[in-house]
Amino acid sequence: MTDDTSQVRLEPWSEEDAGLLRALNAPELMGHLGGPETEEQLVRRHRRYVELSADGTGAGRMFRIVLLPEEAVVGSIGFWSQTWDGEPVYETGWAVLPGFQGRGLATSATRAVVAEARAAGLHRRLHAFPSADNTASNAVCRKAGFELLGERDFEYPPGRPMRCNDWRLDLG
Questions:
Q1: Sign (positive/negative) of CA torsion 139, 46, 31, 157?
Q2: Count of other CB atoms within 10 angstroms of residue 164
Q3: Helix, strand, coil share of the chain (percent; to 5)
Q4: Cβ distance 101 to 132 under 8 Å?
Q5: What one-character DSSP code corresponds to residue 131?
Q6: Residue 126's beta-bridge partner residues?
Q7: Greatest alpha-carbon span in the chain
Q8: What are residue 164's DSSP bridge partners?
Q9: What is the spatial distance between Cα 45 and Cα 51, in angstroms, rounded to a whole number?
């Protein structure tokens, strides 16, 4: 695995990123996640992202993904605390705008967020839970050095069961 992150820069999520969140709410990007969210859900999500990025406790952070050297904002990625199988861990998730997919940007951003989670230092493991049929996101996990633990039942959004792959990366 290479640790190359040179094609992207992660910038902390801010109030100005509400438009990016709306762009990432497109049906083709939300198909594996239960479909697009309502405006009310987007407003709540944006508020959570802003608050998480302002939190200095190591609980997590959300970022916009910036393509270099173009300085184009191409997506989002983050990590946050949760409990999985009784263990406190970080979870990660990402999205890249359709016009920028297929260029390795999600993989580069995931490698960069691994470094951020490692530096935050609150948890030993980072998990990702892409839908089992989301070929692209599962490839990102594999290329970024995560270990596939197997398929699991997951609920996302709350109340919507899905089959996902449980990928884990040791931050130690």
A1: positive
A2: 22
A3: 35, 35, 30
A4: no
A5: B
A6: 90, 169
A7: 43
A8: 131, 152
A9: 10
The answer to whether the beta carbons of residues 41 and 70 sit under 8 Å apart is: no
- How many Å apart are CA 56 and CA 146, to the nearest integer? 26
Residue 99 token pair: 């016009």
* pTM exceeds 0.85, yes or no: yes
Q: What is the pLDDT of residues 156-169, one digit of tens each?
A: 667 778 889 999 99
Query: 34 vs 139, which has greater pLDDT?
Result: 139
**8 A C-beta contact, residue 101 and residue 4:** no
What's the pLDDT at 107? Answer: 97
| Mean pLDDT along residues 112-132 | 95
Query: Is 29:39 a contact under the CB 8 Å cutoff?
Result: no
Cα dihedral value 43, 168, 3, 72, nearest 10:
-20
For residue 84 the two structure tokens come to 């999985």
List all residues 6 or more positions away from 70 whose beta carbon is below 8 Å from its beta carbon: none
Residues 6+ apart with CB under 8 A from 133: 32, 163
